[in-house]
Amino acid sequence: MTAGPEAYRVVGTRPVRHDGVDKVTGRARYGVDASMPGMIHGKVLRSPHARARILRVDTSRADAHAKVLATTTSADFPDPGEGMAEANESGLQNVRFMAERVIASSRVTYEGQVIAAVAAASPHDAEEALRLIDVDYEVLPPVLDVREAMAPDAPVILDDLRTETGGVLGDAPTNIAKHLVYEEGDVEAGFAAADLVMERSYSTAMVHQGYIEPHNALAYWNQDDHLIVESSSQGHFGIRDELARVLQHPKSKIRVLPAEIGGGFGGKTTVYLEPLAAVLSKKSGRPVKMTMNRIEVLTGTGPAPGAFMTVKMGVTTAGKITAATVDLAFEAGGYPGSAVGAGCLCSIGPYAIENFRVDGYDVVVNKPKSHAYRAPGAPQAEFAVDVLVDEICQALGMDPLEFRRLNASTEGDLRVDGTRFHPIGNVETIEAAQATDHWQTPLGEANGSKRRGRGVASGYWLNGGGKSSAVARLNDDGSVTLLEGSMDIGGTRTSVAMQLAETLGIPIDCVDPIVPDTDAIAFTGVTGGSRVTFATGWAAIEAARDLQAQMIDGLADYWDVAAESISFEAGTFSQNGTSLSFAEAAAALQDDGLEVVGKATAQPQGSGNTFAVHLADVEVDVETGKVDVLRYTALQDAGTAIYPPYVEGQMEGGVAQGVGWALHEEYVYDDAGSLRNASFLDYRMPTSLDLPMIETVIVEVPNPGHPYGVRGVGEVPIVPPLAAIANAVSNAIGVRVRDLPASPRKVQALASGTPAA
């Protein structure tokens, strides 16, 4: 059983972040700051077509350019084989599809796909040389909508793709890469027992993570066949492993250096430029640096999938859910691998439902290969479910928070995968929402053409574990240098260091956390899935315990006593009335010539699920369709909030991104499959002017699966905003919003009862 926050000395406090000073003073080194002697620059030629066959790629004119030192096409990359698949952190990955995404060979499946690359003395020379590469295409009509792609007579985008259902592949080519099915209980009997059954369909658009820093890479293929790569990513071990697969080069000969990261949100967990820079370096004999521009980021990297969803739910007049079915069709993009699996698992997570069936479809369309974006799959799926829940509450005349409390999943209830929930804080979060000033304060009156509405939504995320490593080196002044393998996004160096400090009973300012390269520490999984504070924190705890045990062994020799007679508590070593502080013990052991290094690789289970409830107040101008968010409160069970500012920052950031997803953001394509808003001028992300001060309430229901009760916090804040905002707008205008984004054009059309143009 974990202790309460009041029992901790470091956990739950608010120290200055270890990376804060370097970042606010501009000293922090990001990927775009990387350089090496003799470095040259690479640029990428991308397809202008969404779907095409590649008939010819001729780089001879570019090769003849005086300033060009190397060019590359798919011919320079190893043959990945037919359908060869290898396991990685996210499951089984088709290496051929991954290789084609890195650089196309015989076909194009989305606008912006890489065709060739050039390295030259300057970025400008490389850009000029791209115009000298000749490519012949056979342009084909694109397939851009999941419903169109799933039709029996749809053009097949990947002729070697078969639908996988339950591990069995279909016989015919298809655009449906995978069909997932989860079911429990008797759905038909559940609907028969209901007094009210509703079924509705919903859609969300493809959206980008919107990180400010573009993708970048610096690679040097040394003459001894060792490859050194530096890039901004969410996991340098993952980058190393994907490079090894694509290049068919031993991992032992690839060293990846981490860099600070200017945002990722799931979008920087895979390779884009790194393999291109590596091959160009090998061919030129020089280090090659590559950086995307904003158009390349939006057209050529992995946004979150759009989705079309249908939800059916039965309830009694008392508001008890009797059954539910959920159908999710997610855009995989040009190659398989959307987040529909996690969407299935999270779709009805906040609700205790004994009879359900969830179907998920991973559908290939001619858009960029989709990728993770904060709680990947959950925002779309739970948007559909929670908007239907709101409509049911409206039909029943029932308080939406009370409905959620009545149906809340609790310990022992079924999860979608058929297992049962461990201790969770779902009910506690709902009750905290009911007690907020926000919920208990009336909306207030709007004037003229403006209407006000309030929306409620729930959120659920699985949270991850995975493998993490940490090394704790004792210094003679009593400080500890902590090496941990997780890239820091938003303050995890501090949250991990705080757990080490708590375990050793030392102040947090006595810990210096460092993220080393892949040769300096054992494997650590990607920073994503809300796993770092849980799993890497656990590794730091184990490393601290190892260091502590070694110190006790060393002090046994120092005092000439049995190690068993030495106790350790709150940073003090004691035996037979004699004691040494942690710093005194460190000095004594150093004087004895003992070097103490604790280390651990952990792969903990029991990561603990996370729940959130959000409240949103909006004001809608029915004449223009403009929506202003007046007030927003986010509540979330953080388990034990190790570093509260980090938790609050994650909650606020998730809300900001979710509001953008709900009201503004979408990929807009023309009929040819060309992205029409590939810039931050046209791709409408929210700014500070679009958001109110976001109120946060941290609920702490400690996770018994962690020594300090940690639950991951980074994913679930983005789950409720889509439904919370949509429900608020619906409440304001009296017409249900089922398709996002709820842009002014759509809202004005709904409010006026006319179809959107």
Concise summary:
The chain has 757 residues and is of the alpha+beta class. The strands form 7 sheets. The chain has a 7-stranded mixed β-sheet with strand order 3-7-1-16-13-14-15, sandwiched between helices. The protein has a 7-stranded mixed β-sheet with strand order 10-9-11-19-18-17-12. A 4-stranded mixed β-sheet has the order 20-28-29-30, with helices on both faces. The longest helix has 28 residues, at 532-559.
Measured distance between first and last alpha carbons: 58 Å
**CATH homologous superfamily designation of the largest domain:** Aldehyde oxidase/xanthine dehydrogenase, molybdopterin binding domain
Q: What number of structural domains do the residues give? A: 3
Percent range of helical residues: 25-40%
> How is the biggest beta sheet arranged?
7 strands, mixed
Number of beta-strand segments: 30
Q: Looking at CATH, which topology of the largest domain would you report?
A: Aldehyde Oxidoreductase, domain 4
Low-confidence parts:
83-92
The Rg value, from CA coordinates, equals 27 Å
How confident overall, as mean pLDDT?
96
Helix count, per DSSP? 20
Strand content: 15-25%
Q: Kindly provide the name of the CATH class of the largest domain.
A: Alpha Beta
Globally, the shape reads globular
Q: Structural class, judged by helices and strands?
A: alpha+beta
CATH architecture verdict of the largest domain: 2-Layer Sandwich
Q: Order of strands in the sheet with the most strands?
A: 3-7-1-16-13-14-15
